[in-house]
């Protein structure tokens, strides 16, 4: 029953999307054929033209519907959402609007929509739809840095049977952001051990970044070095290592890695460059301050 409802919802959605396109196409073809007919026979049969128009309209709409059915139903995360929320009723429209808001970085507004689905439409949601709503509620809390709430909803999504491999990875990342470093490393290790997880390649750089935020560049460098050696998330690993080396005051090595990261097309190169230069300036300022303080202390000890 669930499968038939999802399929019916997809057909209705595809028909609504296809009807305007199919009708427009049929009208254009109709005028072309009509003009050709009139020029060739110098007469017009009203009945023939009406019948022709209807046939063309039906054929065009059917063709456009087939094309639309072959496309993804959801604009975002089709592989995660699957056959959930594929109808045209209120709950499906609310889910689509909320998802659109989230991907446009309006997490708070999106969360209100997901909470409405959770509370107001609870009796209308399937088990898998509830899991999807819990997952995206967690994503909104995560984006807003409300990590305890995010972890609660990630856990709820898991309990409700959310199947996607992204959940353990995001749960580990959120746990680290929430300050539970040891538990985060444990959760990341579980992702690494899952050979079927497509997110394994991001684990080493994720852990490295976590230690950078803890102001522990030595430990961060160990993880970035592993990622570089294994060429996992390579450009981001180079970028993280450049930050770690700079924090360790190995400025020449930091500059070398920074250039390598840019050459390997690190994500958001402009934002990364600003971040790297800000870290370098801060570390160099602190370094110069310590040198000056040490130099002043030496002068006082010698009586100069």
How does this structure look, described?
The structure is a single chain. By secondary structure, the chain is mostly helical. The protein is built from 14 helices and no strands. Helix 12 runs parallel beside helix 14 (269-302). The model has no long low-confidence stretch (mean pLDDT 85).
List the helices and strands and how they pair.
Layout: H1 2-41, H2 46-70, H3 78-81, H4 90-103, H5 107-120, H6 127-143, H7 147-159, H8 166-177, H9 181-193, H10 203-213, H11 217-230, H12 234-247, H13 251-263, H14 269-302
Helix pairs in contact: 1-2, 4-5, 5-6, 6-7, 7-8, 8-9, 8-10, 9-10, 10-11, 10-12, 11-12, 12-13, 12-14
Terminal residue distance: 91 Å
Order of helices and strands: HHHHHHHHHHHHHH
Judged by helices, strands and strand pairing, the structural class is mainly alpha
Counted by DSSP, the helix tally is 14
- Radius of gyration (Å): 29 Å
What's the story with the biggest beta sheet?
A: none
Count the E strands: 0
């Amino acid at each position: 029953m669930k499968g038939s409802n999802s399929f019916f919802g997809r057909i209705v959605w595809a028909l609504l999307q296809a009807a305007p396109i199919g009708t427009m196409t049929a009208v254009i073809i109709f005028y072309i054929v009509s003009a050709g007919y009139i020029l060739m026979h110098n007469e017009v049969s009203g009945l023939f033209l009406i019948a022709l128009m209807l046939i063309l309209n039906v054929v065009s709409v059917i063709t456009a519907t087939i094309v639309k059915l072959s496309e993804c139903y959801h604009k975002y995360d089709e592989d995660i959402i699957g056959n959930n929320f594929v109808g045209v009723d209120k709950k499906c429209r609310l889910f689509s609007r909320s998802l659109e808001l989230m991907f446009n970085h309006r997490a708070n507004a999106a969360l209100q929509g997901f909470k409405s689905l959770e509370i107001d439409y609870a009796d209308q949601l399937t088990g898998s739809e509830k899991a999807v709503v819990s997952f995206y509620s967690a994503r909104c809390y995560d984006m807003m840095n409300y990590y305890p709430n995010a972890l609660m909803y990630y856990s709820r999504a898991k309990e409700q049977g959310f199947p996607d491999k992204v959940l353990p990875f995001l749960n580990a990342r959120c746990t680290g952001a929430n300050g539970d470093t040891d538990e985060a490393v444990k959760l990341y290790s579980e992702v690494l051990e899952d050979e079927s997880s497509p997110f394994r390649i991001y684990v080493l750089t994720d852990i490295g970044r976590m230690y950078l935020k803890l102001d522990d560049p030595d430990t961060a460098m160990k993880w970035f070095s592993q990622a570089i050696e294994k060429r996992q998330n390579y450009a981001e690993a180079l970028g993280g290592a450049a930050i770690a080396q700079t924090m360790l005051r190995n400025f020449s090595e930091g500059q070398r890695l920074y250039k390598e990261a840019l050459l390997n097309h690190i994500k958001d190169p402009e934002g990364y460059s600003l971040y790297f230069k800000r870290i370098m300036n801060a570390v160099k300022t602190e370094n110069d301050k310590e040198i000056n303080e040490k130099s002043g202390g030496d002068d006082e000890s010698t009586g100069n």
